[in-house]
Amino acid sequence: MAEISSQVQDDAKEREEGRSVYGTGVGMKIPRESEVWRGWGGTEEKPIKGEVFTWNFYGFCTYFILTVLVPVVFPLIISKAGPDPPEPPQGWLQSFKGLKCPQKEMQLYVGLAHREITAGGKGFSPLAWTSLSWITGIILSTPFLGVTAFYLDRGYGQQVVAGIATGIGALFCLPAGFFKKSGAFLPYIAAIVAANAVATAWNNRHLGLLIRGFTGSKIPKSQFPNRRSVGSKLSLYSTSAGCFGAVIMASFTCLMLNHSDQFTALWVVSIFSGLLWGLSLIHIFSTIRGSGGSDDTLDDSVPIVHVLSIFRFPHAAATLALNFLSSFMVICIFGSTTLYASGYLCLKSHNILFLWLTYFLVPLISLPLAHRLQQFMKLDTEKMLVLAFILSTVTSAFGFYYRGGIWSKSFMLLFAAIQGTASGLFHALGIVLLLDCTPAGKEGAFCSWYSWVGALGACAGFTWATAFPGSISKAFGVSLCAGLVGMILLIFGNISSFKGAKSAGHIIKKHKTGAGDHFKGSETSDIPNEA
């Protein structure tokens, strides 16, 4: 009995230490007594340090999937699976803009843009085939997300759903080079996209449970800045870790392009991607959290009613439109810039790598600083998203204005840093805004919609960017319009994280008693700033 009691005390101590992993940065007091905690309506255990660490590790293992693996690695592999592309009209030693270019760089670009794959009587380039495979994966994920969305909010089988999806996605990365046929990559990419959509829905839902674990489900108005701080810090730091994983994969891809047998070398990149993705299972199966919903949020016994309940919450539904626009902008700018720099400006492979490194490395610094800025200026999540749209719109505007010029390397590196920061803010804070507007017990359904719409927006952006590889004005022009629409929606659309949280039931009035309010006489503790 003494040993059991000691173990219980150790576990309680670990939970209490985990409580201080993420702070508010505003010196707020959070009641610690379990009675007060339950009085606020919270039903989640406070996360321990290990759970927060594996949460960041999950971002490291998965962020690269829709930023490097699908839009970069697979088009390159497909281009190497077919015959060599024909020589362009201007020859191999000149870019499409008339600049001198090494033959290797032009062959790489023409191989991506040449329509060498025939299906249904139509020709597809490796880029177009990737787009077709991408949308196939989204269509494939639709029924699975529709089914799993209900069960993500019920019982304790959520880890099984996420584990199966992750295992399938990682497994389909391994045999990418078994058949040196361009058409054979469609099922691989489709399965990876579908599996990632399901796993992302689970992970976003888990973020909602972590936030409730740190702050409680129902909190007074005065404590809402604490919820906002915890959510943004968790998500921003996880995205920073994900950017570091993307740096590794982008660098590995460029390194393997220097091999003589590029098809096999890129196959190795795909295998490594599957192994890295598989490591995210550590986070999935090391944390066990149930539905965590309160009685008033588990009233949708019919799955279809539960899945469609997001449209009863206008603020949450509006975040889907924002997610589509931001995902479209991010991939469209990334893809069109990379193609233009390769086939028209004829940047060498190592310069393309420098662009990617800038794009993914700068957020390692800028995202934590963005959290400090948010805390210092006491900005809402929607205001931070306006900042992200401004940064991305500025990038699109400059790209569109100078569409006919020869971009300097310093110019491109500057806007790679700006757009990389905007991309990280979109990825990190969009889901925080959704979860603020999501009732407890409906995170799985709302996050399934968010994951599906985000994948659809990214696919649309990639398709538009690669459909006109020689017309940079079309890609940047549409991205510019998407950014303006996003800002108008945020500023004039009455989207508010606080109003959304209030309608979702997260904000309650402080109940008072004869001796004072709930907080009087409660044991409190400052949450430190350091992670």
Describe this structure in words.
With 531 residues, the chain is mainly alpha-helical. The chain is 68% helix and 4% strand. It is built from 19 helices and 8 strands. The chain has helices at 2-18, 34-39, 49-62, 65-81, 103-113, 126-151, 158-173, 185-215, 224-256, 262-278, 281-286, 303-307, 314-343, 349-377, 381-401, 409-436, 443-467, 472-492, 497-504, and strands at 29-31, 117-119, 122-124, 219-220, 507-508, 512-513, 516-517, 524-526. The strands form 4 sheets. It has a two-stranded antiparallel ribbon with strand order 1-8. Strands 2-3 form a two-stranded antiparallel ribbon. The chain has a two-stranded parallel sheet with strand order 4-5. Helix 3 crosses helix 9 and helix 15 runs antiparallel to helix 16 (409-436). The longest helix is centred in the middle third of the chain and has 33 residues, at 224-256. It starts with a helix and ends in a 5-residue tail after the last strand. The model is unreliable at 1-5, 14-42, 294-298 and 512-531 (pLDDT under 50).
End-to-end CA span? 36 Å
The percent range for helix content is: 55-70%
Total number of helices: 19
Following the backbone from N to C, one meets helices and strands in this order, namely HEHHHHEEHHHEHHHHHHHHHHHEEEE
Strand order of the largest sheet: 1-8
What value does the average pLDDT take?
Answer: 85
Shape: globular
Biggest sheet descriptor: 2 strands, antiparallel
Approximately what portion of the residues adopt beta-strand conformation? under 5%
Q: What is the alpha-carbon Rg in Å?
A: 24 Å
Structural class: mainly alpha
Annotation, overall tally of beta strands: 8
Q: List the uncertain runs.
A: 1-5, 14-42, 294-298, 512-531
